[in-house]
C-alpha cells in the first residue's frame, strides 16, 4: 500500500489543478492488505467540478499508467447505494 499511497500523495497537487480532484482515497484490497499482482487499485475521488465521461476515463487511464496497475476509479457521488456503506467504511483518504 505504501508505494501506491506515496505516488497518489505526490500527485495530489497535479490532480487538483488538472482534474479538479478535491479529495482522493484508496479502498478495497489496497487497504485490506490483500492486493496481488492481478488486483486493481480502487480509488475514490471527489471533484470540485465533475468531469464528463471521457475526461473521467482519461483520469482513470492516467492513474493506471502512473501506478502501472489497473485502476477502478469511483466518484463519491456515483457510488452504488448497495456498496456505499462498505466503501466509505474502508476508504483511507490521502
From TrEMBL:
It is an enzyme of class 2 (transferase). CDD domains: NT_KNTase_like. Keywords: ATP-binding, Magnesium, Metal-binding, Nucleotide-binding, Nucleotidyltransferase, Toxin-antitoxin system, Transferase. One of its GO terms (molecular function) is metal ion binding. It catalyses: O-(5'-adenylyl)-L-tyrosyl-[protein] + ATP = O-[5'-(adenylyl-(5'->3')-adenylyl)]-L-tyrosyl-[protein] + diphosphate; L-tyrosyl-[protein] + ATP = O-(5'-adenylyl)-L-tyrosyl-[protein] + diphosphate. Residues 10-93 form the Polymerase nucleotidyl transferase domain. Its EC number is 2.7.7.108. Its cofactor is Mg(2+). Pfam families: NTP_transf_2. Gene3D superfamilies: Beta Polymerase, domain 2 (3.30.460.10). Belongs to the MntA antitoxin family. This is protein adenylyltransferase. It comes from Methanospirillum lacunae. The lineage of its organism: Archaea, Methanobacteriati, Methanobacteriota, Stenosarchaea group, Methanomicrobia.
Amino acid at each position: 500500500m505504501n508505494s501506491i499511497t506515496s505516488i497518489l500523495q505526490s500527485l495530489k497537487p497535479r490532480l487538483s489543478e488538472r482534474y479538479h480532484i478535491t479529495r482522493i482515497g484508496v479502498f478495497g484490497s489496497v487497504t485490506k492488505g490483500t492486493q496481488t499482482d492481478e488486483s486493481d487499485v480502487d480509488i475514490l475521488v471527489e471533484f470540485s467540478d465533475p468531469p464528463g465521461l471521457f475526461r473521467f476515463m482519461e483520469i482513470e487511464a492516467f492513474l493506471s499508467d502512473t501506478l502501472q496497475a489497473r485502476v477502478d476509479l469511483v466518484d463519491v457521488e456515483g457510488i452504488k447505494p448497495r456498496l456505499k456503506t462498505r466503501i466509505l467504511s474502508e476508504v483511507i483518504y490521502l
